[in-house]
Design brief:
Layout: H1 2-26, E1 37-40, E2 43-46, E3 52-53, H2 57-60, E4 62-68, E5 71-84, E6 87-95, E7 102-110, E8 115-122, E9 128-137, E10 152-160, E11 167-173, H3 182-188
Parallel strand pairs: 1-11
Antiparallel strand pairs: 1-2, 3-9, 4-5, 4-11, 5-6, 6-7, 7-8, 8-9, 9-10, 10-11
Amino acid sequence: MKWLLQYFKQILIVMLVLSSTVAPAATAQPSFPRNDYLLDGDSFIPVPWGKEQPISWVLLSGSWMLRQGNVPTSYFTFKVVNQSGNNRILFIQQMDPKTCIVMGSGVGSLSTSKVIYATLRNAQNREVYRVNLRNFAASSFVKKVPSAYEGNVVMMSVAPINSYTFTHFSMARVNPSTLSSPNCRSKLQ
């Protein structure tokens, strides 16, 4: 039970960090609805809704980095903890990119083959956030292609638990052995 409380604390941290990384971008009001665009640094990339690809557990398992442009804002680890039948459960942790301290954690489930629905709790302020993960073929993006891994763009959509207004981010695969911090290397493996 104690690990579950710790887990929910970590989810809150993740969401707090995500909300603080979105705030600077919110000051520049684009002339189009933000919830239909993927935030990539200072760029807004149209999301190719309806062109989602099935999510492979093999593709998603491991370490990922949420970025705004070239700056990592958070590391995420995804670990499949239950894969029996149609009930697939994913454990998610968010870590600070400088210290690799766990900032939040949560669980997600794959209810369709194309969207993983999760909740994360921030470890500092205990706020809860909705997180959706989708996979797109890099070729489905018309203008600029965000970070891709093996021809796929993994998109994380984040919203406070009491809101349906999501902000979308692309995620980049991380090879922990290339990181300079030994603390990050060990926690992301």
